[in-house]
Amino acid sequence: MKKTNMILTSGCLLVCVLGASLAAAESNHEKSPVVIPPAAEPAGAKSPNYQVEPFALGQVKLLPSEFSHARDLNAAYLLQLDPDRFMALTREMCGLKPKKESYGGWEKRISEMGHYISACALQYAASGDERYKQRVDTMVAEMAEAQQAAGDGFVGCISRDKFELFVRGEDVPKGGPPWYYLHKQYAGLIDAYELAGNQQALEVVVKFADWADGLLSRMNDQQIQKMLKVEHGGMIESLVEIYRLTGNDRYLKTAGKFHHRAVFDPIAAGKGEVLAGLHANTQIPKFIGLMRRYQITGNEHDRKTAEFFFRYVLDHHTFANGGNSASEHFRTPDKLAAELHRELTETCNTYNMLKLARLLFLTEPRAELMDYYEHALYNHILASQHPESGMFTYKYMLYGGYPQAFSTPFDSFWCCVGSGMENHTKYMQNIFFHDEKSLWVNLFIPSELDWKARGLKVRLETQYPDKEDVALSISAASPTPLTLRLRWPAWAQGAVLKVNGETQSLSGSPGQYVAVTRTWSDGDNISWHLPMRAKVKALPDDPNKVALTYGPVTLAAALGRANIQVENLQGRDVRSSRRWDWPLPKTLPVLTALDRPVADWLQPVAGKPLTFQIPPDAVSEPVTLVACWRANTQRYAQYLDAFSAADWKVKKDLPKPPVAKKRGKKAGKSVKDDAE
Ligand SMILES: [Zn+2]
Question: What is the 3-state secondary structure (H, E, C) of 289-327?
Answer without folding.
Answer: HHHHHHHHHCCHHHHHHHHHHHHHHHHHCECCCCCECEC
